[in-house]
Specification:
The structure is a single chain. This protein has one domain. β2 and β3 form a beta hairpin. By secondary structure, it is α+β, with helices and mostly antiparallel strands. The chain is 19% helix and 12% strand. The longest helix is centred in the C-terminal third of the chain and has 14 residues.
Length: 134
Amino acid sequence: MKSKRLEIRDWRLEGEESPISKLQSPQNGRLLSVSIPAPGVDTAVFLQHALGQERFFWSAANGGLTLAGFGIAANLFAWGADRFSQIQQQASELFANAMIRDGERPLAGPRLFGGFSFIDDFTPDNTWSIHYPA
């Protein structure tokens, strides 16, 4: 069975227009974060719809929280001794202009996922070669 690519129209709530299409930002490049409940959604099946895009999955050991998504909304880059504060500043700027629709769910909202090199003389192997050196 061939997977189909998920599109905005696939996220309609029963009897409603897509919550995503209602919130599309008229400002080019503005981050839009929409969180909606997805009871009964199998995250493995959801991620199969990524069709070659970057994918992310994380689940708490107790099963209380699962995060899954695909695609890249923004890339943040920094290196050197102040790389952590550089990323914090970039994230603050990104989220300050974001359009966030997460309702009353405290764990919802935009997240950053990635990696850092923690030592200055780190030589990446293939696993970490996409990350900038410290």
